[in-house]
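call fold target=HTH tetR-type domain-containing protein
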Amino acid sequence: MTKNSTNPDLAPRPRQRAPSKRSLETSRAILDAAERLFADRGYDGASVRDIAAAAGTQIASVNFHHGSKEALFARVVERRASELSELRLSALNALKAKGEALTLGSVLTAFLEPYLAKAGLDAADGSAGDPQWIAYARLVAMVSADSRWHAISERCFDPTASVFIGEIARLTPRVEPARIAVAFVFSVSAMLSLSTSRWRIEALAASPDAEPRRLTDVLVRFCAAGMRAALAN
């Protein structure tokens, strides 16, 4: 067969163009809007039409960039889950690289602190935090509580959670894995509660200045103490 053959299997394939800056911005605006609306209204209460309007685009654009509503929901959850996973595993690996013995507190810090830092909840100035990351916490709580999204939880969160549960198991070798899993889920729930209910701390405190500034430290101490009590023989 000659080089000039018209066989479609041998013809050079056209190069795919990289997404334009405008296309990337539109995609991100859709994800941000969907994140907020899914968190505020739930999956069933947030329509694609409302998401498109909040993103300043058309329904067809939502479908073009992210497919169906269910596919969009999955992408919203996956987007920050992968970033959090990298940050948490990097923090754990950094602890191991120091050569120091791991503790329950240090393992929990490696898991909990990356989210609180991204959400801006540990800012020294007591600022309200990043509304998108705070919305994401409500979304994670929703996904964790609804069996419809079991596959998303299993894909996005379980691999990293299993690594940390394994580290805790090495620190408590006589404890059944099921008890560790329960205590770990309680700790994650405490993190999500802090993320979505910080206004309650401010409302219940005697004054805004009474709110702890280093929330990660308070949360880790709370979770570590609860976990030790739950895992005690």
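return ok
The two ends are 77 Å apart (CA to CA). Residues 78-231 form a domain with the Tetracycline Repressor; domain 2 fold (CATH 1.10.357.10).
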